[in-house]
């Protein structure tokens, strides 16, 4: 089968790989119909994810058709269309019992990281009963791809962990796809102000179209001061850090109001200091971590109700044979006005 692989030399390319087979009786083999590229995949390419195993097929998002099921799979059968969760959860360990599926002791984020992922014709999903969601027939397949990761991540790790409440103010640092997903799901709580910060004019224009009340271009590092001036030097209730670089964390500390919350959903590959000399007296809360994807069924309901339109983040389409071109487009997002790219597997 065709698969997109990152090798030990840092080269990524489309390769021929053996079709996956069942290893455990709780495995499911899925023929991928649609997949995409995540900002986390770019962090892997840059060497910022220490858990990545060389020569692994990339990707942790997708929708596809169940091809084969292990003998202990109860919830799915061949022919079912499914959403692949970016998180693999066994459902039985101590962390899964607490609904902390991202910290599953037998899974977690392993697809396209520790085991072969979804940027391929087929993928093996461990613990299939707990790591797949039925794909509803009444929702566009390409929209469902974005429920694999970015919308649950933006909602759970950004909005819910940030404890956003009605009438709160929120700042989203980084308006890439996951930052915009956080912005879109923040609107469920009717925040009074949404400050969108980025250096990319296209992303800021998109953020405005999606409901940001203020868009701030930080190419000259003035966004923090502008927001502080607009908030009488108090800051905002919730800061969602969605870029994963030390500068984003530093901005978060400066923007959060006393008693406010910082929710980190950016993938950080370098150390970033907590400035306790300034922050110890601020009574702030900081959260960070992996998504658990427990909100995926709720997000499906929000799409049906018309409150969430994932398709608004879709900008480019490619065939699986064009995955290298898709990566080039996504890496050079500003030049290409790219948000989420859809990669289609047309092989039968």
Automatic annotation (TrEMBL):
Tell me its cofactors.
Zn(2+)
- Annotated organism of origin: Vibrio caribbeanicus ATCC BAA-2122
Q: What is this protein called?
A: Alcohol dehydrogenase GroES domain protein
InterPro entries, per the entry? ADH-like_C, ADH-like_N, ADH_Zn_CS, ER, GroES-like_sf, NAD(P)-bd_dom_sf
Q: Which UniProt keywords apply?
A: Metal-binding, Oxidoreductase, Zinc
Q: Where is the Enoyl reductase (ER) domain?
A: 10-343
Please report which protein family the annotation says this sequence is part of: Belongs to the zinc-containing alcohol dehydrogenase family.
Pfam families reported in the protein's UniProt record: ADH_N, ADH_zinc_N
This entry's Gene Ontology molecular function terms read:
oxidoreductase activity, acting on the CH-OH group of donors, NAD or NADP as acceptor; zinc ion binding
